[in-house]
Design brief:
The protein is built from nine helices and five strands, in the order βαβαβαβαβααααα. With 196 residues, the chain is α/β, with parallel strands linked by helices. Helix 3 packs parallel to helix 4 and helix 7 packs across helix 9.
Length: 196
């Protein structure tokens, strides 16, 4: 008889979360099984090398300090066609966007841990329901990209540097332009983006 269980690998370095996530999944479902727990990048790569059957990976983003090395693993898993859900304490928009760009199919913070079961089912069935923990960051990114399409590539460079807090003089130095050219481009950007 064929095994109908959804096979999950948990990649988490903190023992507290390892125990509680596994216990929660075991208690709440009969058809989702945590088949492996890895604590670091190297252990996860060993799991991949053993070619065990994996349906979904729950991936912590910070496995060693604040290195965001889980994102690197998401990219590796994505290239191999393995569905990965980022599961982390981090709610930073840039980290969320980076996770999706690296191949995560969903992003859930640990404060929303009780939503993990439905997200595993969705992932296993190929459904792409983005969790509300990530939706705000994705919406902001889409709105920003829409704005950027209104600007020329030269204006985009100026806009990005201005958003980073660069002064007109620093932008001019960085882009090898005159301060007057930068000033005109900033005026054009403000007009196109309706910025007062």
């Amino acid at each position: 008889m064929e095994d109908k269980n959804i096979k999950v690998v948990l990649v988490e370095d903190e023992e507290f979360w390892q125990k509680n996530i596994c216990k929660y999944i075991e208690k709440e479902t009969n058809d989702i099984k945590v088949v492996e727990v890895a604590t670091c990048k190297e252990e996860m790569l060993e799991v991949i090398d053993r070619e065990i059957d994996i349906d979904v990976v729950l991936m912590d983003i910070n496995l060693t300090g604040a290195n965001l090395d889980g994102i690197e693993i998401i990219e590796i898993l994505s290239r191999r066609g393995i569905k990965t859900i980022a599961l982390t304490s981090i709610s930073d928009d840039d980290v969320i966007i980076n996770s999706f760009e690296s191949g995560a199919i969903n992003y859930i913070t640990k404060s929303s841990i009780f939503d993990i079961i439905s997200s595993i089912y969705d992932a296993a069935q190929g459904k792409s329901k983005i969790h509300y923990d990530a939706s705000g960051a994705l919406l902001s990114k889409m709105q920003e990209e829409k704005k950027m399409r209104l600007l020329t590539s030269s204006e985009q460079e100026v806009y990005r540097l201005q958003k980073k807090g660069y002064s007109r003089t620093k932008i001019a130095e960085q882009l090898f332009k005159s301060v007057n050219t930068v000033k005109k481009q900033i005026q054009s950007i403000r007009k196109k983006l309706n910025i007062q």
